[in-house]
Amino acid sequence: MTNPPLEPTRTTNLEPLEAGRYQLIEVIGTGGMATVYRAWDERLQVTRAIKVLLPQLAQNTAVRKRFETEARTMARLYHRNIVGVHDVGVDGDRVYIVMELVAGGSLMDHLVAHGPMPVKLATQCTLSLLEALKAAHGKNVVHRDIKPHNIMVDHEGVLKVGDFGIAHVADENRSMTKTGSIMGTWGYMAPEQRASSRDVDFRADLYSAAASWFTLLTNQLPSDLFAVDLDETMLEPVPEVARDLLKRATRYKVEERFQDCDDMI
Question: How far is CA 59 from the centre of its chain?
């Protein structure tokens, strides 16, 4: 018989959530909208990640709505390569999402620690990313912020896409993105997304996946990959075997790129 898991030692001074159910152990990530904690679920006796909206934003109706939409979006995308969401709630002035804890760090953490990946490993990571996107696109969800920072790895080496905070659900909640607004991370954004994030489709995610592949191969940030025909030197750090596919995946014109995940896979 195995011993039951022990509750981790708390290192924060924050009050637990949900009447003591979720013990906040330590901060594992911070951002402009939220703080992510390693947490302990007393009821289920498992470790979780809990994303708590920053207090100064919790009273902002639009931000709060987007935060809650992120939880609903991720919860509907049950897939091996997508971070799972288990709960969403409000405890006083704290709005939070309870997620699967992916403790192996992000692909960007891997690059910082180890440098550029070999072609095979970088491609395997990108294929897993495309499987996650295929599941999301099948539910009409466009992520809009694919980059190595948002791709996590668990201790078994399984990739998990997270951070659907600016995801767009086709034909749903379109009012949450203003016409002409730009959302995403510049170097990884398709040219049409740089013009406006409101009306991009699934092919913008494929561009970002290719730009992420570039980073995995080179440990460099992508910049205007769609203009490679004007400056071939930007692909010099990329192994030759990958260049033609990368060029096709990042063409300026949407119709000249891969049209869906299966096509790119």
Answer: 25
- Burial class from Cβ neighbours inside 10 Å (0-12, 13-18, 19+) for residue 18 reads middle
151 vs 125: CA distance, rounded Å: 9
The pair of three-digit structure tokens given for residue 191, joined into one six-digit string: 């040219």
What are the 10-residue block averages of pLDDT along the chain, 265 residues in total?
A: 60 85 93 91 96 91 88 90 93 93 94 97 98 96 93 95 78 44 74 85 96 98 94 94 97 97 97
- Contact indicator for 5, 45 with CB cutoff of 8 Å: yes
Select which of 41, 145, 163, 205 is catalytic.
Answer: 145
Q: Are 86 and 101 in contact (CB under 8 A)?
A: no
Between the two ends of the chain, the Cα-to-Cα distance in Å is 44
8 A C-beta contact, residue 18 and residue 97: no
**Full DSSP string of 178-212:** -TT---S-GGGS-HHHHH-STT--HHHHHHHHHHH
For 6, which DSSP code? P
Please say if 145 is a catalytic residue.
yes
